[in-house]
Amino acid sequence: MAVQHWADALKKAKKTALISDGKRKAHYLFEDGNEMAEEYDLKTDELVLRKWRHKTTFGGQGQWAWEVGETNPNDITSDLIKENSSNPLFMRKDTKASFQWRIRNITYPVEVYSVSAEPTERCCVIRTSNKKYYKKFSIPDLDRCQLPLESAALSFTHANNTLIISYKKPKEILTLEQELLVELKKLKGTSEGDIDCKTQ
Which residues contact 24 (CB under 8 A, 6 or more apart)? Predict the structure, then answer.
């Protein structure tokens, strides 16, 4: 089963952990050379950040790509060209029970939006009836575990110029996340502040 395959990959990965800034930070180095970094809130155990770094074609280290959490808000390397701050901002911020995406700076009334699951394409689609916004996105957690995309698990709401899309986590994901958190808490983590947790 694919869920077990992903769980095994996580167990086999070299792991480093530390506690800093009220967060439990974990770094994974997988057998294929790819890396994953996660941060969990110490009080709530909620995932606040997950990012990936894949090997380049020539075996070097690629750039970090954000999967969960805000993309590098203090990124000073992109000062030459910046998006307008009033453009819609798409980000993922999960809760314990749901995968959740937020689109900030989107002002249309709630009846303008439609959010649908496209199981054959393995993605979700956001559309507006005024044709001003369109977005396709996948749920990598479901893809890694090869779980089906269920339309019934998808819901959305709109408040304070933010569209919030939720996808109820399947029980397989909830179980896997709980097991992973137990394993992370067993790791000997340092609390000496930010250190390079690169694993060789």
Answer: 17, 18, 39, 40, 42, 184, 185, 189
For the stretch 90-106, pLDDT in tens is: 999 999 999 999 999 99
Element (H, E) at 172: helix 171-186
Instruction: Tell me how far apart the alpha carbons of residues 158 and 126 are, in angstroms, rounded to a whole number.
Output: 13
Residues 52/67, Cβ–Cβ less than 8 Å: yes
- Whole-angstrom distance, CA of residue 164 vs CA of residue 25: 26
**Predicted TM-score of the model (pTM):** 0.82
> Do you know the residue count of the chain?
200
How far is 191 from 22, CA to CA, in rounded Å?
Answer: 10
How many C-beta atoms lie closer than 10 Å to residue 17's C-beta?
19
- The amino acid sitting at 92 is R
